[in-house]
């Protein structure tokens, strides 16, 4: 059966079909700790129509189909656990239409977010969703990504106007138009945003854009304890101060970032702030946050107003995972995330910190705490099964704690294969509706099987 499949795909794609060992290994893994598994083949389409033909061929043979962006997911979402055909979207990377007057852009799914903003530079507009990694727009839509700017600009869910999607049988659909609001039928775009390639392959995305702020200012502020830092953040958000970004790093993570990114901040629990707006608005926002931070024993704000300084600061935050790995050479990182209502964030982090203080594992905490989301990075010896068992125990406690606080088992990483077992507790009977949707759109379970749901 595979021989026949390979022959049809080769006729369609010629040298854009590959089953070479090197290419298969490149598509066997993501950034997670989960065990790599190679696909049977990798294809590189260049149009929506080619994606449709690929899916028609694979569905005929009932072969698994795994969409692939750049492999930056951290919950095993692109690992081909049952083999199959990996559909690498990297060659579908064009900007199709920029509508400056309407503040929107339509792009192919394989375009990366950094390249999008580079291409937008002369328009005075930008796309704010920043998960850290230079992920593809299609991958970000599939995982409902967010990141450091979410506290002000929202997540991918709020910033997608329309999608073009290819379903398992090769049918091509669009989910809407470019209007800023619509009451026309079911909200199909939100069905596919966050579906992690289990319902279809996103090939085009229409995104909201924003004007580049007239003034941007960033600051770093350290606190005596992690609770002080979290409570400062909560009060700033509850005071309706329009912070653009606010990121938490615990003392261990700051130690790692100082070393890895050549910074010289105190190795204490720290908040990274960024403010957007007019010069006057930015100044007033910063003053208000400064007053609140002093109530919680904060040190002085250290400002980074020049573009190069800000870029270095936020690059250090984005490199937090690699910085953490430097704390334990040879380790693998298990990065987990949860999200809770902002009013429960301090309790959730404090209870998590109690668990982490009582373990022998090396761990760090980072978080987009402005929207109640934080991550624990477990640094594990790949040969030590007991360390993985301990990390799983702590991870389960953290997830259950979040769900019990009316939160979620994942704020932005997605379910993949790493968090399937917790989805039922979070959604209850809603999981059955998800299964019905999956069965309706993908009756043969070929679309990224084994991810999100156990069918």
Mind summarizing the main beta sheet?
7 strands, antiparallel
Topology-level CATH name of the largest domain:
Uridine Diphospho-n-acetylenolpyruvylglucosamine Reductase, domain 3
Structurally, how many domains make up the residues? 4
| Helical content (DSSP H or I, runs of 4+) | 25-40%
- Average the pLDDT over all residues and give the rounded result: 95
Strand order of the largest sheet: 15-12-14-13-17-18-16
Overall description:
The structure is a single chain. The protein has 455 residues and is of the alpha+beta class. The protein contains 17 helices and 18 strands. It has helices at residues 2-13, 21-26, 48-61, 113-120, 137-143, 150-153, 156-159, 188-192, 226-238, 251-261, 279-295, 307-318, 320-325, 345-357, 385-404, 420-427, 430-441; strands at 17-18, 41-43, 65-68, 85-88, 95-99, 104-108, 125-126, 160-167, 172-174, 200-208, 210-211, 215-222, 243-249, 270-277, 302-304, 332-339, 362-368, 373-380. The strands form 4 sheets. A 7-stranded antiparallel sheet has the order 15-12-14-13-17-18-16, sandwiched between helices. Helix 1 packs antiparallel against helix 3 (48-61) and helix 9 (226-238) runs antiparallel to helix 14.
């Amino acid at each position: 059966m595979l021989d026949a499949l390979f022959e049809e795909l080769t006729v369609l794609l010629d040298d854009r079909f590959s089953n070479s060992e090197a290419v298969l290994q490149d598509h066997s893994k993501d950034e997670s700790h989960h065990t790599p598994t190679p696909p049977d083949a990798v294809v590189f389409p260049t149009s929506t129509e080619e994606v449709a033909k690929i899916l028609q061929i694979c569905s005929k043979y009932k072969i698994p189909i795994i969409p692939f962006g750049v492999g930056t997911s951290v919950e095993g979402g692109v690992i081909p656990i049952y083999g199959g055909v990996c559909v690498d979207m990297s060659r579908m990377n064009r900007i199709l239409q920029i509508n400056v007057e309407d503040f929107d852009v339509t792009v192919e799914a394989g375009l990366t977010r950094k390249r999008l903003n580079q291409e937008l530079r002369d328009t005075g507009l930008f796309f704010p969703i920043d998960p850290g990694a230079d992920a593809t727009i299609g991958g970000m839509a599939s995982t409902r990504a967010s990141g450091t700017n979410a506290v002000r600009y929202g997540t991918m869910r709020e910033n997608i106007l329309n999608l073009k999607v290819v379903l398992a049988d090769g049918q091509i659909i669009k989910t809407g138009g470019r209007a800023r609001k619509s009451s026309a039928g079911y909200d199909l775009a939100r069905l596919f945003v966050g579906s992690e390639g289990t319902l279809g392959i996103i090939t085009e995305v229409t995104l909201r854009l924003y004007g580049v702020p007239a003034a941007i200012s960033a600051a770093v502020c350290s606190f005596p304890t992690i609770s002080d830092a979290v409570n400062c953040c909560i009060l700033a958000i509850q005071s309706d101060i329009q912070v653009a970004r606010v990121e938490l790093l615990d003392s261990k993570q700051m130690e790692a970032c100082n070393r890895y990114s050549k910074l010289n901040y105190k190795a204490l629990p720290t908040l990274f702030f960024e403010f957007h707006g007019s010069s006057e608005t930015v100044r007033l926002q910063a003053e208000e946050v400064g007053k609140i931070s002093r109530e919680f024993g904060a040190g002085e704000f250290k400002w980074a107003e020049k573009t190069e300084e800000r870029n270095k600061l936020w690059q250090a935050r984005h490199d937090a995972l690699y910085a953490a790995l430097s704390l334990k050479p040879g380790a693998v990182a298990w990065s987990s995330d949860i999200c809770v209502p902002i009013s429960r964030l301090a309790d959730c982090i404090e209870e998590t910190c109690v668990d982490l203080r009582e373990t022998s594992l090396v761990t760090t905490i980072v978080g987009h705490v402005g929207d109640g989301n934080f991550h624990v990075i477990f640094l594990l010896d790949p040969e030590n099964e007991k360390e993985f068992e301990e990390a799983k125990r702590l991870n389960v406690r953290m997830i259950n704690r979040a769900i019990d606080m009316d939160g979620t088992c994942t704020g932005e990483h997605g379910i993949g294969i790493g968090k399937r077992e917790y989805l039922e507790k979070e959604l209850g009977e809603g999981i059955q509706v998800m299964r019905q949707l999956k069965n309706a759109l993908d009756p043969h379970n070929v679309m990224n099987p084994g991810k999100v749901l156990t069918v």
